Amino acid sequence: MRSQKRLPGAGEATMPAALAAERGVVEGLIDGRGASRWRLMFPDALETRYVEEARVSRTRGLLYSGIFAFVMYATFLISDTIHRSEDLALAAMLRLGCVCVVAMLVLPLVQRAPSMRLKEWLMTALVINTMLVSAILLQLSRTELSHVDTLLFGFFPMVGNILFRLRFLQALTASLTCTLIMAGVIALEPAGQEGLELLAMVIFASTTGLSLLANHQLEYNQRQVWLLRQRERLLLEEKRAAGQRLTREANCDALTGVYNRRHLERDLAQRWADLTREDGLAILMVDVDHFKAYNDHHGHVEGDHCLQQVAGALQAGIGPQPGMVVRYGGEEFLVLLESVTERQLRACAERIRRKVRALKLIHPDSSVAKVLTVSVGAVSYKAEQHTNLTDLVRAADAALYDAKHQGRDCCIVR
Fold first, then answer.
1. CA torsion angle for 259, 261, 267, 272 (degrees, to 10)?
2. Which of 360, 357, 292, 285 lies closest to 326 in space, CA to CA?
């Protein structure tokens, strides 16, 4: 058990409110408030978290789907062998050299790219490159059956929209660019292919449009699932924060932020056997000298502020040894130390006395000094004398009584 920390400051105290505010934003997005369904974009902070949480799985998905897609694309050479035998060398050069090799160079960049946005645009470029190379191959081919390839062009944007599952912005960019390329291919088709051109355009428009809608729905659903998980996480954090706040309120003194007497008694009742099994348990009773006079002179507000500063000085005075500070009542504090020698106990008592003096809180009505001081009574646990906490506290109180009668602003250690 280390030195007791103060009650939460302004930042920690407002944490539940911040969680509630964030949950309100999340619930608004779930309900469709504050963002367009088609935009698929969260507020900046949420968007950053959403992207970063999916970074590893998303990168892995892009790599695996990219490898699969371009291996499948290479199998188009089988069709080229049958229907484009005289242009097989050209087809192999374009399909393997300009598509598959480019993919082999780009996919490692996708894996190492620092931002997810860059990863998405690299995959988008691969889709567009594949469509463009296929269109060039069609224009350079001398085989009449090669024009049947236009029936398969809808496959390329569909791969980006469904297999790669590009983010909607990138999917839309790839689909529109492929549509422009397709329009150019149709415009350059020789006369007499009007029926084939119409059929190819219908198939392309259908597959591209439907796959783009599916892409949007997939991303929308993915984002909704993430929002639901965020809401659940925030609710759990709010409950946890509320539980911690109630625990602090039950165990800590509201004014000074140190432990209260109830916590001390409960904690010692649970751990007394362990603490007294070995030597080193000690208690210091600390009393603010002439605090009533200080309170009367400066007022209750300054009196409260004084007790807060004294509690802080006591915490600082504990030093490295395990222990805790307790507000025992009024202007009286108790410091419990574990595993300390008598020499360490004496040093701690004196350090506490000096740290309170170092606060330099003006005390004109004190008979001891012109600044606020404390008296300290300390006692080490002795099995033959102290059978419980009450005995130990009574002994420390007796030492404190002696310190007061020796002129205050001093330490008595027994």
1. 130
2. 285
The identity of residue 42, as a single letter, is: F
Give the single-character DSSP code of 93: I
What tokens appear for 236 in the block? 């759990």
Name 342's bridge partners. Answer: none
Q: What is d(CA 58, CA 115) in angstroms, rounded to the nearest whole number? A: 12
- Crossing angle of helices 44-53 and 15-30, rounded to 10°: 80
d(CA 116, CA 407) in angstroms, rounded, equals 71
- Classify residue 401 by burial, with Cβ atoms within 10 Å: 0-12, 13-18, 19+: middle
pLDDT at 238 over 60: yes
Write the pLDDT tens digit of every residue in 267-289. Answer: 888 888 888 887 789 999 999 99
8 A C-beta contact, residue 379 and residue 292 = no
- Residue 285: CB atoms within 10 A of its CB come to 25
d(CA 399, CA 340): 18
Helices within 75-146 (DSSP H only): 76-83, 88-92, 101-112, 116-140
Tokens describing residue 284: 């210091």
3-state class (DSSP) for residue 229: helix
Q: Tell me the C-alpha distance between 229 and 402, whole Å.
A: 62
